[in-house]
Amino acid sequence: MSDTSKKEFKRSFSGYVEICENMPTGMITVRGDLNSRKLKSAFSKVVGATLPKERKVTLAENSIAWMSPDELLIICGYDNVSDLMKKLQKELDDQHHMLVNVSDARAVFEVSGAAMVEIIAKLAPVNVKTLEIGEIRRTHFSQVAAAFWLTSEQRMKLICFSSVADYMFDLLKTSAVVNSKVGEF
Amino acid sequence: MSKRLGVGGQFIDRSKPIKFQFNGRRFSGFKGDTLASALLANDQVLIGRSFKYHRPRGIVSSGSEEPNALMNLGENETFEPNQRATTTELFEGLTAFSQNHWPSLNFDIGVINNYLSRFLPAGFYYKMFIHPRPFWKYIYEPFIRQSAGLGKAPSVKDTSDYEHFYAFYDLVIIGGGISGLNAALTAAESGLKILIMEQNSEWGGRCLVDFPFINEEPGLKYISRILSELRKYKNVTMRSRMMGAGVYDHGYLLGYERLNDHLSTNEGPRHRLWRIRAKQIITATGAIERPLSFPGNDIPGIMLASAVRDYATNFGVAVGDKVAIFTNNDDAYRTAITLHEIGVTVPVIIDARSSGGGELAHHAKELGIRVENGKAISKVFGQKRVKAVTICDYEKSDANKEKIECDSIAMSGGWSPVVHLFSHCGGKLKWDEDLAMFRPDKAAKPTSSDGLPFVTAVGSANGFLLMNEVLIDTLDGSRTAIRAAGGKINNKKTKEFLDKNEKAPEAIWISPKDANIKKRSKTWLDFQNDVKVSDVELAAREGFESVEHAKRYTTLGMATDQGKLSNINGLAILSSTLGKEIPRVGTTTFRPPYTPISLGSIGGSARNELFQPIRKTPIHEWHEKKGAYMEPVGQWRRPFCYPKEGETHQKAVEREINQTRSSLGLLDASTLGKLLVTGPDAGKFLDMLYTNMMSTLKVGKCRYGLMCSENGFLIDDGVVARIDEQTWLCHTTSGGADRIHSHMEEWLQTEWWDWKVYVANLTEQFAQIGVVGPNARKLLEKIGGLDVSKDALGFMEWKEGKLGKYDARIFRISFSGELSFEVAVPAGQGMAFWKELIELGEEFGVMPYGTEALHVMRAEKGFIMIGDETDGTVIPQDLNLTWAISKKKEDFLGKRAQERAHMVDPNRWKLVGLETLDGSVLPDGAYSTAQGFNSNGQRSTQGRITSSYYSPTLKRGIAMGLILNGPSREGEIIEFPKIDGTIIPAKITSPVFYDPDGEKQNV
């Protein structure tokens, strides 16, 4: 734990896919009217990315994920959170909205490899065959809530509550042990 | 004897011998063998004992319908009981033990039941073990437990891995025989995503045995040609060793894949449970041959005719030297011909039909095999092995009797389509009089959410037994399913197949037709559960007319094979006894799974550390390192106490309380629910949710609040802090955070959808630490930063800013009665903050305290705890919390409910404190008795204990309880009987035992 600034990830595992838990990531929950012009312009001005369509993620330096019809998640550098929040707050001041820092409440995992989607299929009731890159799903991985999206054909990011990070890591690890490949995709 | 032949066996590889053990004896088989075929190859015909009478039993079938050949398989961590030898693939080092016998398979004491069978009729257990009642516990139950069950229970934990797999297809085909494979081929170019599964390791089903040629093409070649064609299609997934276990609503389907049961190694998952969603399902599950009911039909050496030819063709095994054949249909002649071809003597074919069979029968006769038409078996000689049979006229058991020597009998009572998967989700069956079978009703298929059919049975599973019909029906059924799944149809036709001219079977349910009671008592229907024709007849006579009742009374079809062989024969006997037609009696319900699946596969990866997710606070690791004794709180684990070496939990709790009350204690309160509520209507919203007023709370202040359900009952409590003009932070109980979050969202989304309020659950964003005790302020001042003096941060106020290097929000609230601060920092800073508090607190002797100390301290102060003082039936008024119920508010959730007659009843039990006269601790949950008895003859009660602890502060037992007219009875002594019969008298007091004026927390 001593010098975390130099580490690229918290922990990792190599099975028939690669798994790692990322270092803390900045996350801001935004709730508001996603159709309002003000919100859209605030986002393009402050966050520098367009609002995602339903069940999509705008992949950029500051990514924006669609979470529900009135909720977005900004995914950014851990240290950029308060700055972004301040600026957004200023833009949205006279509009009913909610902005909260949830960075510390979440754990972020990445799974990569040719058979990456198999790990999803082992744990979440999701039809991975129809998944597109940049599509987000809020679902459950085995017994805990999670959201994930594909960042490329062979890589996905997954977020869950930090209290169950150990469970999630063990879960992904168990599903990725060699000899357990399904060979379906 | 049964033996391996020099030639034949299309599944086995004779160059690869495999060693295995059965009952400690070494045997050898070949790669490709099943355990059953390898045992038969070694003349091991006796393989187990029956459940009730311990009769010797042999292998009956060659597949998943097997009732007898159940094994204790493996040893120690791979041990598993009740495994069917017929579906267990042989591997090097396999060990198997037969079941249900003592002391040995060959000599079994329990067989005495066989001779007592007259006294063990259907319903014996129900009749015998009812009276006298006192016998239940010490005599009947141990006896029943001793005799219950076939296999042994494993004694060591299973170390294999299991997993789930979610899969989605347009079309799933269950069964990889000729019908399933053709269905897949028909669908391959439809544009659909297709899965086809086969429960066995080999594709092809009965086709490989029964049809040496499919239109001039050898059967084996025909199947491998289709297989290689299917493999070309990327949209077709093929999985063997995968069974369709169950079909459920809306196209949900379970596939049970066995990955390494056939291997010596245990690497990777053993079983994988496929949780499939399918638009359309085709069941191409084939048919199962029925046994015939004749006296002594359970003696080892008597097998299904199809199984006899399976063992010959697939494994090169002859089940006997002289195999008699008993049939009511043409198909069994195939067995005679096969056996004749490999040089096994067929002394006689006994055909119950007086007019005999068709083309196949003619062929058998041409081969010189003796055929007896209109005949039946009336007796079987032999106990552990068939020695001979007596045949007679089918119609008349004493006419034309003749004893014929044989060491095996191949029987065939016709075929029953495997309708299980078609029926699981509501598919209806109809009785086919000509073929004597229940078959799927095309007009009553299982329907999905849209009301349209989603399961189609094809081929033999749909009741077609002739090859040409099978192919035509498969094409027809597949197209129906493809169309329903939205696929393209091609116009390919099937090539006509010229079937042999077969004569219709004749339904014979008991043989000989006039069998007397003695013979019917030796005629088995259900081999595994030892149910005989006479038992079903008895059940019918005793009034169990419904097939479901008769099943449960006799246990017919209730064994691990779920009556795959016995159901139809049993209900035919029932219907003839009742004088009703078979379709009027109907079948019992087909329920998933098709054959038993492992519990491990159902659990999947949810075992060991993954059994249940455990939520951990940012400081969890520290607690564990310090040896904290953890307790579950919701899915969290929280320290109950931190025992030192050699210290009991009780002593640890006392130490933690004494330290906290006298100096300084720390509590990890991170699990506390933290719900942020914001928006122009947030105040209005919270006024509706809480019983008291939250909209008037000033920014920077905190207020304790109660939350009730619509029915007025207390559901949660906690401290609310006003963050800014539009924002409140609501603390909930640890277990209530998610529930109350959902509660808020539900009201906002369904009732008050036009209110401008947003809620976020920030429970995990913060680590929250209680800094508690007279020295709490000193510790925070030592860290420095925020001013926490009495004037700067008064009681029930909060402040935020830098505390040392931490981003802190400090709430000056107290659940212990002491000077207390709850400090929230971002979760990522939690551990460092906690460690610094521990370090700097050393001069005050700082100690962490656990949930039990928290509970005791709050009870000393008379604070209620949701879940202790409340149980879903308690309203705030019961707890004297009327001060927290606003009278000014027009409405809040629970307000009207609390005005109901029952809620304002002055006789509701109310909260008081209780002090035992002798200082002892009252048992939690104990009731106080009152005079008299209630209408049930039970002693009347006048209240109960809701919390009870030893208070180290007061050095005596203290308790809270809900007591009839409690608050007005202060000083009165009431009695609490204990379970041991003694009585504890206790004095009613105020629930606030410690510092009633709140001087300690207000310094």
What report would you give on this structure?
The complex is a heterodimer of chains A (185) and B (1003). In chain A, 23% of the residues lie in helices and 35% in strands. Chain A has 185 residues and is of the alpha+beta class. Chain A folds into two domains: 8-23 and 105-175, Gyrase A, domain 2, CATH 3.30.1360; 26-103, Alpha-Beta Plaits, CATH 3.30.70.1520. In chain A, helix 1 (37-47) packs antiparallel against helix 2 (81-92). The radius of gyration of chain A is 17 Å and the shape is elongated. The mean pLDDT of chain A is 94. With 1003 residues, chain B is α+β, with helices and mostly antiparallel strands. Chain B folds into seven domains: 3-114, 2Fe-2S iron-sulphur cluster binding domain, sarcosine oxidase, alpha subunit, N-terminal domain (Ubiquitin-like (UB roll)); 161-287 and 417-484, FAD/NAD(P)-binding domain; 292-413 and 502-507, FAD/NAD(P)-binding domain; 516-591, Arc Repressor Mutant, subunit A; 620-671 and 766-857, Gyrase A, domain 2, CATH 3.30.1360; 673-764, Aminomethyltransferase beta-barrel domains (Alpha-Beta Plaits); 905-1003, Beta Barrel (Elongation Factor Tu (Ef-tu), domain 3). Chain B contains 25 helices and 51 strands. In chain B, strands 9, 10, 13, 14, 15, 16 and 30 form a seven-stranded mixed β-sheet that branches. Chain B is elongated, with a radius of gyration of 38 Å. At the A-B interface, strand 7, helix 3 and helix 4 of A face strand 9 and strand 16 of B.
